[in-house]
Amino acid sequence: MIIAIPLQLALVAFLLNEKLQKYYYEIVIICSVLSICSISIGVYNYIKKRGKIKILKDELIEIRE
User: Fold this and answer.
1) The domain containing residue 17 runs over which residues?
2) What pLDDT score does 65 carry?
3) Residue 25: how many CB atoms within 10 A of its CB?
4) pLDDT value at position 64?
5) What contacts 54, CB < 8 A, 6 or more positions away?
6) Which sign, positive or negative, has the C-alpha torsion 10, 11, 12, 13?
7) Are 24 and 9 within 8 A, CB to CB?
8) How far apart are CA 18 and CA 41, in angstroms?
9) For 24-62, what is each residue's pLDDT tens digit?
């Protein structure tokens, strides 16, 4: 869904007048950048959380021993 919104905006941009297309393309670029940023933040948080889980697993193994 995050990627579909900029694609829909790009499709609508082709249907607009030439004067409005310039502003609409800027909106499409901004939405694309925001969607890429949100995906990268999600991946970063996933990797960060996974690293914490590994540390906790290692500590639990040490406690059990």
Assistant:
1) 4-64
2) 67
3) 14
4) 75
5) none
6) positive
7) yes
8) 35
9) 777 778 878 888 888 889 889 888 888 777 777 777 777
Residue 50 Cα distances to 9, 56, 57, 60, 64, angstroms? 35, 10, 11, 15, 21
Q: Position 9: which residue type?
A: L
Q: How far is CA 49 from the centre of its chain?
A: 17
* Residue type, position 8, single letter: Q
State how far the alpha carbon of 41 is from the alpha carbons of 2, 7, 34, 47, in Å. 13, 21, 10, 10
Can you give the length of the chain in residues?
65
Between helix 18-64 and helix 4-15 the angle, nearest 10°, is 180
Total structural domains within the chain: 1
